[in-house]
Amino acid sequence: MEKNLVKAAYKKLYLISPNMEEVKISTLNEYLTALKKKSTTKSNILAHIVLCNEKFPDLTALHIGKNFSAAIIGSGAGLPISLVENIRKQKNFSLIGAQKYLFPPQKEALLNSAGFGTIHLGEFRDNMASVEPLVRNVKYVFLDMTSVKHSDYPWEGNTNPNGFFANEICQIARFIGFSCDLKAVFVYGLPKSKCPQVCANLTAQVAWHIADAVANNIKEDPAKEKKKGKLPNQFEHRIIDFCSHGDTLTFITSVATGRWWMEVPVIKKNTTELMPCTEEDYNTAAEGQVPMRWLYYYNRLNNL
Questions:
Q1: CA Rg value for the chain
Q2: 3-state secondary structure of 52
Q3: pLDDT tens-digit profile of 80-137?
Q4: CATH 1.20.1260.10 is right for the domain spanning 2-216
Q5: What angle do CA 248, 250, 252 make, to 5 degrees?
Q6: How far are the Cα atoms of 182, 225, 246, 266, 292 from residue 274, in angstroms, in the given order?
Q7: What is the pTM of this model?
Q8: Where, residue-wise, is CATH 3.40.800.10 in the chain?
């Protein structure tokens, strides 16, 4: 099996931290078997990297429930319309790496109408850090290896001349591993046969970057800390005053990790939620403009 080529290539990589063993790389069948045993067997596994088939995996077979936070790393090609309609019900979802000429406009319109985030390939290249807030709190990630351009992933089933470069997909993998809620990464777009060794090696390196980030991650949640009444010293408040409108935007940053959050009002509940953002969003607000990410979150939270 070609998935075994990936697992063999992964085992050859240098593991710098014993904590990386808390991330398990397995085939889809192995993962489903482990799920059945979970209720009776204790496990120290923090996250799973699941090697799936060529196509997007069947959500019903994965038993991930109806209300989940997720991200898809892919060009947008091949996503069934039923999937797009189903994920409209989710609280948090994003598509990263979409290529407009491969992603039907009606599917993107469905995502946009639900208030979900789409980062096109060109937008990603302009600002790689824009991915991190979108995957910071996701539980499940679906990563399409054919979103990597053919020259970097030269499998005969990958006929796309454009896409992520090898180093870019590894950077995204690292962002994924730093998620504070990550449960599993489902990797698809894998050859069933005749898998070039370079493809197996790249997939293994993607898995390595996820595992390394999980092992070195500092999990933090200022929202939970706020509910306790006081933020620890690692968090700093930054308040931007829009004098001309009399409004303010509140940001929180972690001096330990450099992560940023912004407060977004939820009108129906008369409260606010802390949502992931970047320092660039803070700088945009400091220049007197409302960040686009704030508007995205505002529309999403107030249209649930």
A1: 20
A2: coil
A3: 766 766 666 666 788 999 999 998 888 888 777 766 778 999 999 999 999 999 999 9
A4: no
A5: 165
A6: 18, 11, 21, 10, 16
A7: 0.92
A8: 2-216
